[in-house]
Amino acid sequence: MEFIKSNKFNIILIALALVIPFGVYPVFLMKVLCFGLFAAAFNLMLGFVGMLSFGHAAFLATGGYVTGYLMSNADLTPELGILCGTLASAVLGYLFGSLSVKREGIYFAMVTLALSQLLFFFFLQAPFTEGENGLQGIPRGKLFGFIDLNNNLSMYYFVLAVFLLGFWLIYRSVHSPFGQVLKAIRENEPRAISLGYSVRQYKLMAFVLSAALSGLAGSTKALVFQLESLTDAHWQMSGEVVLMTLVGGMGTIFGPLVGAAVVVGIENFFSGGELGTYIHIIMGLIFIICVLAFRNGIVGEFNKFVKNNF
Amino acid sequence: MDTILGINPVALFGQLLVGLINGSFYALLSLGLAIIFGLLRIINFAQGALYMIGAFLAWLGLEYWGLSYGWALLIVPLVVGLFGILIERFLIRPIAHEDHLYSLLLTFGVALVLQGVFSHVFGSSGKPYSIPEFLQGVANLGFMYLPIYRGWIIVVSLLVCFGTWWAIEKTKLGAYLRAGTENARLLQAFGINVPLMVTLTFGFGVALAGLAGVLAAPIYSVSPDMGANLLIVVFAIVVIGGMGSIGGAIITGISMGVIEGLTKYFYPEASNTIIFMVMVVVLLIKPAGLFGKEV
């Protein structure tokens, strides 16, 4: 347990992340990192504040569409494009958050789901998203004007850097006084209120941070695949991020990344060919099994095992 | 056609009728959700999938088993209700003591599996279901022509909704149910078998979705994803109405259908989103919902 918390462990992980694209297809790795960041951002709310958002696809898609549109039409450098996408998601997060934190628990889940469906129809009808076709052939551009990202290996290291930045931000937030208040709200909201914390403000801040980081993941993903489509805005995407977090272990730091790797891996295995139609059945079954028998997720169970045996 | 103040009455009444029909389905589904929520404190994400199964069973019945529409209307809700009882007994009850968010995620998983199985077996294209003979034809109401089947949907769902409201608010069984909603442990102390009541309530709430599915089969095409999108709209309606009252769920459901119909006439671009926008306005003005009791 001590070892896992140590800096040595982190350094080994990062070193592994640096050499792994030489053994594994980089596009797959980038997909895992983007969804890992997305799930980690989502987990910031579900795992650390106890708020189940069922509309996080909205932020992923907003980041992706804004970045994709600007990269295709405004000739921005990728870092600026991603920044704009992230900011757009943060603004949307503020709007959605102000409305939804008024309700709790199950209502909160329904409000976020309905709001993201509203946005889905907006993206479906708005001319700049090109409807069912989506934005295709988004240019990756040159990072800071001189690093060509069309090379998958350079793109991988860029995505890794974005991921580490986002992950570090989440880690810092969770382990700050702000994060302590969030956990207090999760454990006992009335007590947090009685201690004088303005709980709604804290919830809203967590919501905006989570939305912005989801937007960061979506923006980066749009550059990786050079494509942004309605799939990202669909409610099934909101369900998928819940599944990733659940499988990996909610309320853990590394859980969402592990969950994203598992879910993306399963999807890649089943996509294409005859097995394609089984994917929703498999996802649903994993949901049911996790909820019935595996609520701590992979990382949660692992932590428990280490704690009990070492 | 004559227009009055720039409004074409035939088209307007046509959209109003469509709105009333959609509203009937909204009312049936949100009523089911509200009843289940009352006792179990969960939202059933599988409600849309069970509505879809209701429609599919009606279609399968007619296509393969010679089950006519009239029988389907009776038998299918029972079958769907039984299926719901199995879900409650074997999946939801084991985790009922955990955080309710887990049960919600569980029903979401169930919905994904059901939808996945049906699209795997039947493909994603819609299946046609013809209107039964005794409900075909059109009635002339003077100001408009009413296809009889559409009138039938409105009458049946209003009767079922009103019957449910009456059973819950005015009968002894309903009194148990309301008592369970207030304080299930105390009710159990009075010797009522609460777990059984929870199971039957879940079954009944789900059967309403099955009934809505049978009613929908002849006018919407029967397809595996027919329930999912409808359910999200129903969620918005539940947020608008709040789940404090049974009557509230019915009224909100029907009126939202009518508002949607009017939007289709006056500003069709917004007809997909109008209910969500109403939800935003309600959240701004009265966050607990129009009929909600919580703060």
UniProtKB/TrEMBL annotation, chain A:
Query: How the protein sits in the membrane?
Result: Multi-pass membrane protein
Alphabetical UniProt keywords: Cell membrane, Membrane, Transmembrane, Transmembrane helix
- The protein's predominant localisation is membrane
Q: Which domain of life is it from?
A: Bacteria
User: Which InterPro entries does its entry note?
Assistant: ABC_transp_permease (IPR001851), LivM-like (IPR043428)
Q: Which residues cross the membrane?
A: 12-30, 37-60, 80-99, 106-124, 153-171, 204-224, 244-266, 278-298
Q: Where in the cell is it found?
A: Cell inner membrane
Q: Which GO terms describe its molecular function?
A: branched-chain amino acid transmembrane transporter activity
> What are the record's GO terms for cellular component?
plasma membrane
* PANTHER family in the record: ABC TRANSPORTER ATP-BINDING PROTEIN (PTHR30482:SF17), HIGH-AFFINITY BRANCHED-CHAIN AMINO ACID TRANSPORT SYSTEM PERMEASE (PTHR30482)
Q: What is this protein called?
A: Branched-chain amino acid transport system permease protein
TrEMBL record, chain B:
Q: Is Membrane one of the keywords? A: yes
Q: Which PANTHER family match?
A: ABC TRANSPORTER ATP-BINDING PROTEIN, BRANCHED-CHAIN AMINO ACID TRANSPORT SYSTEM PERMEASE PROTEIN LIVH
Record protein name field: Branched-chain amino acid transport system permease protein
Q: Which organism is it from?
A: Thiothrix eikelboomii
User: A GO CC term?
Assistant: plasma membrane
Where in or outside the cell?
Cell inner membrane
Which keywords are on file for this protein? Amino-acid transport, Cell membrane, Membrane, Transmembrane, Transmembrane helix, Transport
Lineage: superkingdom:
Bacteria
Family listed: Belongs to the binding-protein-dependent transport system permease family. LivHM subfamily.
User: Sorted alphabetically, which InterPro entries does this protein's record hold?
Assistant: ABC_transp_permease (IPR001851), BCAA_transport_permease (IPR052157)
